[in-house]
Amino acid sequence: MNRFSAAIGGFVILLGIGAFVLFSAAYTLDESEQAIVIQFGAPVGDPVTTPGLHFKTPFIQEVRRFDKRLYSWDGDPNQIPTRGEQFISVDTTARWRIADPLLFMQRVRDERGATLRLNDILDSVVRDQISATDLLEIVRSKDWRVSEEDLARAQAVSETDEEILRQRVASGREELTKLILEKARAQMPTLGIELVDIRIKRVDYVESVQQRVFERMIAERQRIAEQFRSEGQGRAAQIDGQTQQLLAQIRSEAQRRAELIRGEADAEATRVYNEAFGADPEFFSFFRSLESYSRSIGSKTTIFLGPDSDYVRYLRKSGLPE
Amino acid sequence: MPSRPYPPSEGADNPLMEQLQRLGPVLWVIPLLVIALFAALTSYYTVQPEEEAVVKRFGRVIAINPPGLHFKLPLGVDRVQFVPTARVLKEEFGFRSGGGDARGQYIKNRTHRDESLMLTGDLKVIDVEWVVQFQIADADKFLHRARQPIQTLRDISEAVMRRVVGNSLGSDVLTEKRVQVATAARLELQDILNSFDLGIQINTIELQDVTPPDLVKPAFNEVNQAEQERERLINEAEKRRNQVIPRAEGQASQIIAEAEAYRAERVNRSRGEAGRFSAILTEYKRAPEITRQRLYLEMIDNVLPKAGPVYIMEEGANSPLPLLNLGQPLGGSTGGK
């Protein structure tokens, strides 16, 4: 080895040490990160929140990184009784972020610790609020209104159903959500967490109640179906009745008019006869009687002609009248 | 075993080591060249047409670049994240469409059903499936405001849809208020996402299948059937009416027509008879005796041949004297003159 290469070797070693120190002193912070610089376990200065290239004292300081972004929290569905003692399954979802990294680090250490604490706090707040609220208030919102048309469309059959539909909402889902957020938020500052948002994601009946609700819905549908059917039968009967009435009307009207016409005819005929026959009633009587004999006497008639009969007179004697 | 002996290696004797020592100073260049090549390779990037590139220098956002070829500082100083901002993205609730093609399979399992079953304002259960279509409006915000922006979108979307449906009547959501529900949910979802500053733009929320729960469906169908049955019964009754009434009207006209016929006949006959009587009366008045007698005898002519037994009574006699008996043979007639 000559001197030159020794020099180069020394230089390279120095460069290496320099680079090592530099890399230990510099750190980058992503847009989504914030960090605390720690020296022998004690935090140094304020948390670093601006992204980019930063420096610290090499070797003796270390950097703890935390996410700056919104975290999602998803609770397990809880079975909670409402104020009306109906058991429902409530699933909540929340957004939170690390507001004070130092406090956060001290109190809950990391995301896992935070989630565990949040589980406890949020579950209990939700439980408290839900069990102090009626189911209707949980499901509906404050602007719940049911107009008469809505009622007709909803085909509510029973009066209790209608009453439930009309029932006004005092606070409603939005207010309840706000209240839960408020109560839960109050417990957050000690954890270095800011609770941004908490919402009721799902509200469902528990299995057994759901079964009963389905049965109720089925029964209600069947009532409506029955109503339709009897409506149909009723309308059909009504139409049939009207038909019979109309029939009777048409027939009797025809008969009435026919009788009137016949009556007029008879009257007219009588008038004509009277006019003609009235000219000589005696002759009419004679004439009409003769005609009647012609018509009425037949083979079944036995005729007895008395001696004073005009017809028989010449049969007996043909002498001139004395 | 080895067919030819391998030369024993003894440090400086190795020809490779000799070569290396000779090249000495030049050797330092090789890693530099490798580094330079690597730097060159990492100093450019291409942005696809549907994407935007978020460029970060030491972690800080310095640019958001449109599609095309771009250059950056190499060796991890500048890093690039690609975000598909032009693409319309889709999240499905209550079902998943599997398969790659446009008309993929429809999948709905228990988890999906849990997403779509919800309570309505009248405390019924309803199965609402919907799709949220959205775009990433701001790539920077989308990457750096929430750890799970899509999960956030899903959570809030479920919460919002349930709030809106919970504030509506089940029958309305099933039928005429679908569009209103979807619109209300879209506005509310957008508001909440804006409050998180997620850089997401909701394009539409579309309600897909909205149905009663499976167990209740048959009952709903029964209502439809009953409604149709009602119409059928009414139609049949109307049909019966339409069959009967015209026939009855026809019969009524017939009755009246018959009465009219009777009138015509009766009046005409009376006029005829009256006319005949009047005519005869006129002649009768000229010679009453003769006419009377003639009419009488004509009647007898007419009547006797048709009649049954005719008896002529003797004055003071007890038994009648048969004169003519057309109904019986002559020999069989009892007695005679």
What does this structure look like?
The complex is a heterodimer of chains A (322) and B (337). Chain A has 322 residues and is α+β, with helices and mostly antiparallel strands. The model of chain A has no long low-confidence stretch (mean pLDDT 86). In chain A, strand 2 (33-39) and strand 3 form a beta hairpin. Chain A is 56% helix and 20% strand. The longest helix of chain A has 71 residues, at 207-277. Among the domains of chain A are: 2-67, no CATH class; 71-205, Tetrahydropterin Synthase, Chain A (2-Layer Sandwich), CATH 3.30.479. In chain A, helix 3 packs across helix 7 (172-185). In chain A, strands 6, 7, 8 and 9 form a four-stranded antiparallel β-sheet that branches. Chain A has a three-stranded antiparallel β-sheet with strand order 3-2-5, with no helix packed on it. A two-stranded antiparallel sheet of chain A has the order 1-4. In chain B, helix 5 packs across helix 7 and helix 8 packs across helix 9 (288-303). Among the domains of chain B are: 16-83, no CATH class; 89-212, Tetrahydropterin Synthase, Chain A; 301-332, no CATH class. Chain B is an alpha+beta fold. Chain B is rod-shaped and about 195 Å long. In chain B, strands 6, 9, 10 and 11 form a four-stranded antiparallel β-sheet that branches. Chain B has a three-stranded antiparallel β-sheet with strand order 3-2-5. In chain B, strands 1-4 form a two-stranded antiparallel sheet. In chain B, a hairpin with a 2-residue loop joins strand 2 and strand 3. Classes of the chains: A alpha+beta (322), B alpha+beta (337). Strand 10 of chain A pairs parallel with strand 12 (310-312) of chain B, so a sheet runs across the interface.
